Structure formats: C-alpha cells, structure tokens
Description:
The complex is a heterotrimer, with 2 copies of chain A and 1 copy of chain C.
Chain A: H1 3-9, H2 26-34, H3 40-49, H4 54-65, H5 69-73
Chain C: H1 2-5, H2 9-18, H3 31-42
Helix pairs in contact in C: 2-3
Amino acid sequence: TSQKHRDFMAEPMGDKPVRCLAGIGDALGKKLEDKGFDKTYVVLGQFLVLKKDEELFREWLKDVCGANIKQARD
Amino acid sequence: TSQKHRDFMAEPMGDKPVRCLAGIGDALGKKLEDKGFDKTYVVLGQFLVLKKDEELFREWLKDVCGANIKQARD
Amino acid sequence: MEKYKGMTDEELITSLKKFNIPHGPILKTTRKLYEKKMYEFES
C-alpha cells in the first residue's frame, strides 16, 4: 500500500477530510466534497451501506467522482 | 444505558444482526431487515452517511421502521 | 434502465430479492447502483 494509506491507517480516522484517503487527490476530493462526502467517515458509511461489497463500492466511486480503476482500488 | 446496549458495546460489532441494537426488538428488526438493514454495521453506515447527526438519524429510524422516541434514542 | 428508475424502493428491493441478488438498503446514495445491477442481471 502507499505511504498515504499507511499514514491514514496509523491513527483513528476521526474527522479527517476525504482527501486523506489513498487514491483521492484534489480533483476527486473536490467532486466528493461537492456531493456531501467531505469526510472519510462519510465514505466509510457508504461502504457499509453497500454491505462492504468492494466491487459495488468501486463502481459507486467511479460514478460519484470519476475515479479510475487504480484510484478506486487504492 | 440498558444491559442490551452494554452487551452490544462489550465486543466488536462484527456481523451482528440488527436486532442486537438496543431499542430494536423483533418487530422493528423485521422492518429494518426487509429494507436491507439486516446487520448493525449497515445501520452504522446510515448514521455515518447522515454525518452522525443524531436528530436526523432518529428521524430516519422513525420513518424507516416506526421506532418511537424512546426506541430511537436507545 | 427506465423500467427500474420508475420502480419504488420497495419494488426494486423485491426484484433484487426475487433474483437473489445480494444487496443493502435502497438509499439516495445506493439506488442507482442497484438499478444498474438489476438491468445487467436481466440483460
């Protein structure tokens, strides 16, 4: 995994902004924020309501902010 | 808090069924399950997607399964 | 796809159940994915 992901995992997510997520840079972060997913815990919530279905979650990420396959997998 | 809630909090929620939540008995549990909220982690997801807004969450719980004020607060 | 867009949440969840498609709740943020899943499944 990337250093960004290791940094993220090193402490509780608390109120971290969505751009702290590995794979989510400024461009994707802005799109997610515009749709209400401004914090990492909201994105976690979406993963949970999708019943932790990784494929469905990646598809959602592609739809909601145009993440490519690598970004979604990260 | 109730014994049910203390029992629930005593260990990771893992894959626990929604009826393990304090305030959610068989009747409310069935309604939640029918709408796809069959596990406690899915309900947590909804709370996070609602940005941890307790009032909004209680509102949602009332709408989705007819929880009364006490049940929603529990 | 239009067929699923017009469905109520209950109708959509009933269709998913009928075809044993694993699913979570139908929410504003999940509905589109399940409409797509139903469409792909039936086509």
